[in-house]
Amino acid sequence: MSTANTSGSWPSMSTTPPNLSGLGTDHVTWGIPAGGGGKSGYIFRGGTVEVQLDGTEFTLGTFTHENFPIQGMPQSQFDVDLTVQVVFEDGTRTNFSFRFHHNETPNVGPSPEDEVDLPTFISPETVVVDGTEYAVLISGFKQNGVVVRKFISPENGANSADVVAMFARAGVPDVHISTVRYKGGVKYTQADEYVEIVNRGTAPADISGWVLGADDAGQDYRFPPGTILQPGQRIKVYTNEVHPESGGFNYGIKRPIWNDKGDTAKLRDTGGTVVSEYAYGDRVPAAQP
């Protein structure tokens, strides 16, 4: 683990809106106010972070969208570029760039909230540490403890989220079980139990035919053909619920699967090799003195 300081600036936009100001700083604004709330804009605030090179997530910085009704925009969808400078404790400085895609939705109708997402979650720049090349992979926007890939921003306010990222080896996938929710809230069946799996690498991972299980009969789930995990993507395999936003995978079993006292979830590739495992409860190895 090492300490790094992050800071950011918005160097460019793909459109030229009226009242544009702040390019090259950490606070860019644009638009002709249509009400009393002022212009819209983006803010990025960095800070001191603890970073690791094993796929552990950290907060790259805080993103804020100032979302107020504006007019005079030449187009409703456009890109805003972000440059994040990371200064490691040994003095190494590296810039990483990302593109934010903005959808300035109409302020009327069933979904007036603006939307912000990233066309790609991987920095094109890399850094070499101890002979290994790493890129920065953004997992998503973290709001209320949940990491999402698309930022939904209500009107008439400043809406913020942590930008969660990790250092990932360049050019390869890295699939891991990130958590097991082994105590569901649905009475008797615990249908809302799930195992979350994430690709912590910078290349897509084809997990077609891979098996998620725990060495017990009835606990094997085989991923269907065409199951591809994009860099940073998270999916969940539920016991007996369907959630399309997290992949829509489920065992379809009307009883609890994961032992409340303890178990070990294992993910195996098509050759039977254990790619990742996650122990919880009484299966967690005792800490060494």
Write the layout of secondary structure elements.
Elements: E1 2-13, E2 27-30, E3 32-33, E4 40-45, E5 48-51, E6 58-67, E7 70-71, E8 77-88, E9 93-103, E10 114-117, E11 122-129, E12 132-143, E13 146-148, E14 150-153, E15 157-169, E16 175-181, E17 194-199, E18 205-206, E19 211-213, E20 221-222, E21 228-229, E22 234-238, E23 249-250, E24 262-268, E25 274-281
Parallel strand pairs: 22-23
Antiparallel strand pairs: 1-5, 1-8, 2-4, 3-7, 4-6, 6-15, 8-9, 9-10, 10-14, 11-12, 12-13, 12-15, 16-17, 17-22, 18-21, 19-20, 19-24, 24-25
Compact overview of the structure:
The chain has 289 residues and is mostly beta strands. It has strands at residues 2-13, 27-30, 32-33, 40-45, 48-51, 58-67, 70-71, 77-88, 93-103, 114-117, 122-129, 132-143, 146-148, 150-153, 157-169, 175-181, 194-199, 205-206, 211-213, 221-222, 228-229, 234-238, 249-250, 262-268, 274-281. It folds into two domains: 2-169, no CATH class; 175-281, Sandwich (Immunoglobulin-like).
Describe the structure.
The two termini are 21 Å apart. The protein has 289 residues and is mainly beta. It folds into 2 domains: 2-169, no CATH class; 175-281, Lamin Tail domain (Immunoglobulin-like, Sandwich), CATH 2.60.40. It contains no helices and 25 strands. It has strands at residues 2-13, 27-30, 32-33, 40-45, 48-51, 58-67, 70-71, 77-88, 93-103, 114-117, 122-129, 132-143, 146-148, 150-153, 157-169, 175-181, 194-199, 205-206, 211-213, 221-222, 228-229, 234-238, 249-250, 262-268, 274-281.
